[in-house]
Amino acid sequence: MALESEVESLRAVPIFKGMDPRRLKLIAFTSQRLSFKAGDVMFRQGSDSDCAYVILDGSAEVVLETPTGPLVVSRIGSHSLVGEMGVITGAPRSASVVAVTEVGVLRLPKDHFLSLLEEFSQLALAVMRDLAHRLEATNRLLVARNEKAG
User: Fold this and answer.
1) Would the N or C end of the chain have less CB density within 10 A of its end CB?
2) pTM (2 decimals)?
């Protein structure tokens, strides 16, 4: 994928909305383009949080390993950010992410991602909003699961 195409993909990611095109170009240039096949584990719960990923195309599932087995908590697709929670907190990955289809990503190294958050308060706020919405959705899923079990 050409640099300009990656910039256009980043522009479609809600958290990067309104960011200067030159900054998007720098993000695309300093990121690593990777792809995963369906069934590939992008990262495992408990592993080191060394980067965040911007999903450019494809879809993946966020899976929690629980005492009763794996629990799919969400499905994510194009223009999503994943892996940022551990990067922000410094904690190991809180869930695994598994490619459902072929997935193309930009890998944002931890230091690079954190410096972006420090430099751009608008980006930091967008990431916090996204995390809050996802936490709320996961809480609803867990409550519904407990109600079925109880």
Assistant:
1) C
2) 0.84
